[in-house]
Amino acid sequence: MSAGPAAARQGPFCRLSRTLQPAFRFPCWRCEIGCGSRAFCHANTFPTPHFSIEKIIMLIDSHHHLWAYDPAEYGWISDDMSVLRQDFLAAQLREIASESGVDGFVSVQARQSMQETDDLLKIASEEPLIRGVVGWIGLADPDMESQLESVSGRDKLVGMRHVVQDEPDDRFLDGEAFNHGVSLLGQHNLVYDILIFAKQLPAAIDFADRHASLPMVVDHIAKPTISGGTMDPQWEPHFRELARREHLTCKFSGVATEVRDADWDIETIRPYWDVALEAFGPKRLMFGSDWPVCLLRTGHKQWLDTVRQLASELSEDEQAAFFTDNAIKAYGLDA
């Protein structure tokens, strides 16, 4: 359990908890008592729970992006995504961590270039909040092995991802050269992140079977189309089938962005939460924000609060798995 970055600050004891050791005090902004002390107190001081579980466990956001915006480098950011046409770097990430109470992040590539991987690793080397980096190499390139060797072993590199969702061939994941590249990741203790649309799920099932010993992470619950209150028929049956592969975990992230209706609320999201939770279970599902892409439909804290409400049905241990342990296990992060 982590008290988060704020607990490292010096200050007086909370007047409701004067004798506790500093390592076990929690910042007032996490408190639900509201004594007004603006100091520190302990989660277990009171017979009635002082904090809800989501506020006292360490919180890992398993999916976010960083970029110094350049239209030539980020052509996928279209005219209707103007909110994303700005820099999102370590300074902004620290603001998000403070606002939402996040203890660690996994940074994921947003450009398909070796430079992207290098840039993210450099930022991560200077930013303690970044626990891991999912980068990019040309997995189908003839020189893929030399690309992999050039980054293998770098601190905080935990996985690789290819933007399969943008490939015109829905069976891109069948490609022999691509599969050869993916097959080498395990030798370097790297995970593969699967980024697809729902229509690509059948190929993803075969792909996962082909690499049964390689840990994989499904991004954004495989991006169903959410519209009109009806479940995406391309998504649910294939998603459930994919989840039967025990070497896969899944991020409950990027879901609000897939809503096609003008407005959304927790009830819009709930059916997809229910399916994802039932399919993967609380030990193979993890929280992610997809910040800053989530800003197209929601803020980081709004999304976190929505997911916390959905996860409130889980036991304390299950919430700890979903918000913390599953990301640590999936990516081999330092706890």
Automatic annotation (TrEMBL):
Looking up SUPFAM superfamilies in the UniProt record yields:
Metallo-dependent hydrolases
Q: Which domain of life is it from?
A: Bacteria
Q: Ranges for the Amidohydrolase-related domain?
A: 60-333
Which GO terms label this protein's molecular function in UniProt?
A: hydrolase activity
Q: Which InterPro entries match?
A: Amidohydro-rel, Metal_Hydrolase, Metallo-dep_Lactonases
Q: Which Gene3D superfamilies match?
A: Metal-dependent hydrolases
Q: Which PANTHER family match?
A: AMIDOHYDROLASE, AMIDOHYDROLASE-RELATED DOMAIN-CONTAINING PROTEIN
Which family does the UniProt entry place this protein in?
A: Belongs to the metallo-dependent hydrolases superfamily.
* Protein name stated in the entry: Amidohydrolase-related domain-containing protein
